[in-house]
Amino acid sequence: MRVLVTGGAGFIGSHLVDTLMQCGYKVVVFDNLSSGKIGNVERWLKDENFRFVRGDLRRREEIRRAVVGCDVIFHFAANPDVRAAAAAHFSDVIGTFNLLESLKDAGVSKFVFASSSTVYGEAERIPTSEDYAPLLPISMYGASKLACEALVSSYAHSLGFKAAILRLANIVGPRSSHGVIHDFIMKLRRNPKELEILGDGSQTKSYLYIDDCIDAIMLITEKFNGDVEVFNVGSEDQVNVRRIAEIVVEVLNLKDVKFKFTGGVNGGRGWKGDVKVMLLDVSKLKSLGWKPKYNSEAAVRKAAEHLAKEIIK
Ligand SMILES: NC(=O)c1ccc[n+]([C@@H]2O[C@H](COP(=O)([O-])OP(=O)(O)OC[C@H]3O[C@@H](n4cnc5c(N)ncnc54)[C@H](O)[C@@H]3O)[C@@H](O)[C@H]2O)c1
Predict the structure, then answer these.
(1) Chain segment 22-58, per-residue pLDDT in tens
(2) DSSP state of 41
(3) Is pLDDT above 80 for 313?
(4) 2-170+207-233, what's its fold?
(5) What are the catalytic residues?
């Protein structure tokens, strides 16, 4: 079976590629290397089951050629910076539209889309389940993911493939090039005496280790049955930003680091559009037989240990 992974040279995409290759799939990676790195898939470049296409979803002709002969599409390409300008996120909607348009007559059977917990906005029900409504994102990133979900659903119905929409919590682990752990390590490398923390440190969210995330993606892809199904993918508990800072300081073996909180906006958020509390109800995913190996704190610690080595190298 041949699969296409958009964003396959990125953090989550490249871990998925490793697993797909180890399982014997033929894998095509489509990536413009804007935030991904060729080094993330280097080990597969000479493998006859692997093909790397450097291309951009904003150019429909490039993606149209890449999807030919693929049975399953994993759509993971996007601008991962939740604070990027609105236009950057809007171009991810265009990219998703181009990808879906290129599937006409392509004979794809399954489509798996990396959406985000941010589509829930400020959910009033915590933990938040997939049927929560109304979906009112508070960031452009969340808005773009919700728009993409709508496109995926309608194309699945009109073109006749099955689609799984994955609402991911914060995924952490080796190769991650953004997010709070990466940010703290970079800042502490520059100044090991003081750490600037965006917001008031009380933002409390769910963090999932990459291995648990890949297990979930593989299981969902194999087992989901409906025409379009939504799955939350996250850990079963939360950790706050102050505790993440403490863990990173411990992992880096630093002493007497002064935490400097920016105070943030709108009641201590890191930035406008930062959701303060996030925890997903993952019972639907667990009903497939999935169980995370790490809780949020353990995931953060393990990711910090890996990233500290990667960044210092
Ligand atoms: N990491 C998380 O915590 C998290 C949480 C929720 C959702 N997601 C989603 O999961 C997906 C993967 O995220 P990630 O953390 O691995 O980010 P990443 O930046 O490491 O991976 C994204 C990849 O997409 C590629 N890309 C971006 N725009 C492209 C375009 N127009 N054409 C072709 N390739 C393009 C990048 O070069 C990169 O390799 C993204 O859609 C992201 O929004 C991630």
Answers:
(1) 999 999 999 999 999 999 999 999 999 999 999 999 9
(2) G
(3) no
(4) Rossmann fold (3.40.50)
(5) 141
Helices (H), 85-240: 86-101, 140-159, 180-190, 210-223
List the beta bridge partners of residue 11: none
234-287: per-residue pLDDT in tens?
A: 999 999 999 999 999 999 999 999 999 999 898 889 999 999 999 999 999 999
Alpha-helical runs (H) found in 30-179: 60-66, 86-101, 140-159
Smallest CA separation from ligand 1 atom 28, residue: 78
The alpha carbon of 64 and the centre of ligand 1 are apart by a number of angstroms equal to 20
Q: Is 234 in the pocket of ligand 1 (CB under 6 A)?
A: no
* pLDDT for res 83: 87
| 3-state SS assignment for residue 74 | strand
Q: How many Cβ atoms from other residues are within 10 Å of residue 198's Cβ?
A: 20
Domain extents in the chain: 2-170+207-233, 174-206+237-278+291-312
pLDDT per residue over 82-123, tens digit each?
889 999 999 999 999 999 999 998 999 999 999 999 999 999
- CA–CA dist 29, 71 (Å, integer): 14
* Pairing state between β 239-240 and 204-205: antiparallel
| Whether the CB of 173 sits within 6 Å of ligand 1 | no
**Distance between first and last Cα of the chain:** 37
Give me the pLDDT at residue 311, please: 85
CB atoms within 10 A of CB 136: 13
* pLDDT score of 2 more than 70: yes
CB 259 within 8 Å of CB 195: yes
| Sign of the dihedral through C-alpha 280, 117, 310, 249 | negative
CA gap 254, 250 in Å, rounded: 6
CATH of 174-206+237-278+291-312, one of 3.20.20.20, 2.60.40.10, 3.20.20.70, 3.90.25.10: 3.90.25.10
